[in-house]
Amino acid sequence: MSRSRVAIALLAIIASLVIQTTVFGASGIAPLGVPPAFVTLVVIALGPYVEAEYHLLLGFTAGILADLMGSGTLGLWAMSLTVVAYASSRLRARFNEGIVLSATLVFGLTLLGQVVFVVLGTLFGQNLLSDSSLAAKIFLPALWNLVLAIPVLLVLEAVFKQRDEGWAV
Amino acid sequence: MTRTTILFVSLVAIGFIIATFDVRDDGDGVANVMREGTQSIFEPMQKAADWIASPVIGFVDGVSNLAGLREENERLQTRLRQLESQVLETGAVQEQVRQLEAILGIEPPAELSTVTARIYSSGPSSFDNARFIDKGAKDGVVIGQAVIDEDGLVGRVDLVSANDARIRLIIDPLVSAGVRVQSTNETGVVSGRGDGPLRLEMFRATASVSAGDLVVTDGSRFPPGLVVGRIVADAAAEVGFVLRAEVEPAANLSQVDFVKVIIGWTALDADLQDGVVDTSVSTTTTTIPPTTTLPSEG
After folding, report:
1. Residue B201 and residue B188 in contact, taking contact as beta carbons nearer than 8 Å
2. Of B51, B82, B189, B269, whose CB neighbour count within 10 A is largest?
């Protein structure tokens, strides 16, 4: 695993956090009142390009940064995105079987991340089960990620391909 | 067990330990320092992204709302006419109040200092009801201060650094506020439910409440008289004088771009250990009448 691949992956995660909190943030783009889970999408999409151990560490890092930028209990997104990265790494071979299957996997893994977060949040007293829009907040981010998966996967593929070709030259 | 699985279990365990310590510290201590540090690092990037993305977001909003614009325009014009007539009535009432206060020797309500702030980012998920504003300790903002917009109460400051602050919206399940129903003058507590209407609970209610009744803060945690919202449906006290109802927030929390932080009033239970408010900073002054009313919808 080269350092440049990890550096690109880290930059992608930092960019995703900035985009999540601004473009898909408070007054940003949130169809039906719920924004996509963009950080989760990027963590999943990085799976095919980094080794499983690095993928786990990137998921944990993305999660802890998301926790630090939010108002909830520290560590909840760290655990959720680690679970997503682990499940994603187990399915990494499937991401080479076409863009449609990849997008479907993104949908399922995002759903998994949202559910894990709600369960952990409830365990740690975040009172998430009382949320009147709980179902929408679990399901809609996964649906928007399904739509965003194709451009994000294509952009990451292009970035890593360019990096590999540049390295070869 | 593979190396990947061992690492996975270890990371989840670390996350669990971090979460446990954070819950034990009630979000204070090292975690707060780390949050402030992270926010300081990300703040310039977020402000730049917000500046770049704002026109695009505005365009997307405009296109998606195109169909409803005509209807919205008609509704706003009707509301404007209602408000104009109310302003005239309010002016006359204010003059009467001023004269009565002068006759009775009563001090008028104190003016509250506010600072206007812009929301530049939000929490990283739809479950997070945090918003970040571009004013902080340098502007006199401290933890516990109320945050309002032109419609009513928006939330409460819960984290402050030198140049920015985090506010927690009133719809957050961990936020509650002491309130008074204006029609009955009875008090209760509203708490957030993550989204949609707030939950109102009144434990010694003797009178019923009706749909549209105005709910304002009672002065226990937020300055008195701030509009919180309106009762959604009629409700009466149940056995044991407990009354439960829903309150639709007056502020449109999904569309808030600018807010005012009331820096001239802080609840007694607010955490003021960060220091004394610097009164030398430039502020504007707003009088918030204790009987502010909103026009009825429709």
Report:
1. yes
2. B189
Between CA A21 and CA A12 the distance in angstroms is 14
Residue A57 belongs to a domain: yes
Residue ranges covered by each domain of chain B: 3-63, 65-104, 112-298
Tokens of B156: 């409460």
Q: Does B158 touch chain A (CB under 8 A)?
A: yes
B296 band by pLDDT with thresholds 50, 70 and 90: very low
Name which of B1, B56, B125 to mutate to probe chain A: the one with the most chain A Cβ atoms within 10 A of its Cβ: B125
Q: Give tens-digit pLDDT for A27-51.
A: 778 888 899 999 999 999 998 899 9
Please give the structure tokens belonging to residue A16: 């995703």
Please report which confidence band the pLDDT of residue B263 belongs to, taking 50, 70 and 90 as the band edges.
confident
Nearest by CB to residue A56, choosing from B4, B19, B129, is B4
Report residue B284: phi and psi, to 5°.
Answer: -105, 165
Q: Cβ–Cβ of A70/B27 closer than 8 Å? A: no
Helices A52-69 and B30-64 pack at an angle, to 10 degrees, of 90
Both tokens of residue B206? 């003797």
CB contacts of B193 in chain A (<8 Å) are: 130-132
ipTM of the complex: 0.91
**Tokens of residue B195, six digits:** 């989204």
CATH superfamily, domain B112-298, is Rod shape-determining protein MreC, domain 1 (2.40.10.340)
Domain that holds residue A27: 3-159
Give chain A's domain count.
Answer: 1
SS3 label, residue A138:
helix
Distance in angstroms (rounded) separating the CA atoms of residues B88 and B278: 38
Contact A132 B17 (CB under 8 A): no
Residue B106 per-residue DSSP state: P
